[in-house]
Write a structure and sequence with these properties.
The structure holds two protein chains of two kinds. Chain A has seven helices and five strands; from the N terminus they run E-H-E-H-H-H-H-E-H-E-H-E. By secondary structure, chain A is an alpha/beta fold. In chain A, strand 1, helix 1 and strand 2 (35-40) form a beta-alpha-beta unit. The longest helix of chain A is centred in the middle third of the chain and has 15 residues, at 94-108. Chain B has helices at 17-27, 44-55; strands at residues 6-10, 34-39, 58-65, 68-74. In chain B, helix 1 (17-27) links the parallel strand 1 (6-10) and strand 2 (34-39). Chain B starts with 5 loop residues before the first strand and ends with a strand. In chain B, 30% of the residues are buried. The chains are: A alpha/beta, B alpha+beta. At the A-B interface, helix 1 of A face helix 1 and helix 2 of B.
Chain lengths: 170, 76
């Protein structure tokens, strides 16, 4: 089908929150019959590791992130815990705690897990390419990543992106 | 009331799961058959309109029943 639309995404972020946009947009585009390719580079490589447990969310220095509790009565859940950066930065394990709470919120709201969305992308034949330069830079091995990856450089990205209808840097 | 061939319960699922499940279910159906989808995500109302427009499947109806959103989509 030569008139098939194409979506090219560069995924550069390696946190739990920013893991969502590339996989949500890629899987949805695939459902809308787009041909989709995601180029994972720098911290985006975290999104294609076999082990996703390293994906965390950090409220530190992120004034846009509401900090609400995923349990308790409604009035309690509605409180936005405005904890100053200096306190967040000095509590060991603050990121891990925020991540646990975020994962609970994700489950409560019927939002898919990253592993689930990633699998749906693969089922829908979204192509995953990892930037070989950053794989080397961060000391990763191909065995750290899920099966079905391609490893290439910037030129490979442009081969597809140059023909794409939509190109996103996330 | 068999005015559909298959049913998909996407209750409790959030974006983009209702669309992805609908796409998958439609994939296993014959052309001309009708899929009934039940969803609770308020965003799915606009999303199923857009999905139908872009995939060429026909959105026969979109409405609310007992606090849930119900869609009928005919496969192209």
């Amino acid at each position: 089908m030569s008139d098939q639309k194409k979506l090219a995404i560069i995924a550069t972020k390696g946190t739990l929150d920013w893991a969502y946009p590339p996989f949500i947009l890629a899987s949805t585009a695939a459902a809308l019959d787009y041909e989709v390719e995601i180029f994972f580079t720098f911290y985006g490589l975290q999104l294609v590791r076999k082990d996703l447990s390293g994906l965390k969310v950090s409220p530190l220095g992120n004034p846009g992130m509401p900090m609400k509790m995923p349990f308790g009565p409604k009035w309690f859940r509605g409180i936005n815990w405005n904890i100053p950066n200096i306190i967040q930065a000095n509590i060991p394990g603050f990121e891990s705690l925020a991540t646990v709470l975020m994962k609970k919120t994700i489950a409560n709201t019927g939002v898919a897990t990253i592993a689930e969305l990633r699998e749906l992308c693969q089922e829908a034949e979204v192509r995953f390419t990892a930037c070989q330069m950053t794989v080397d830079l961060f000391g990763f091995d191909h065995s750290d990543f899920i099966d079905g990856m391609e490893y290439a450089g910037a030129a490979k990205f442009f081969e597809f992106a140059g023909e794409s209808d939509i190109c996103l840097y996330l | 009331m068999a005015n559909f061939d298959q049913e998909l319960d996407a209750s409790g699922l959030n974006c983009p799961l209702p669309i992805l499940r609908a796409k998958k279910t439609l994939g296993g159906m014959e052309s001309g058959q009708v899929l009934r989808i039940v969803a609770t995500d308020p965003g799915s109302v606009k999303d199923f309109e857009a999905f139908a427009k872009q995939t060429g499947n026909t959105l026969l109806s979109s409405g609310e029943e007992g606090g849930k959103f119900v869609f009928l989509i005919k496969k192209a």
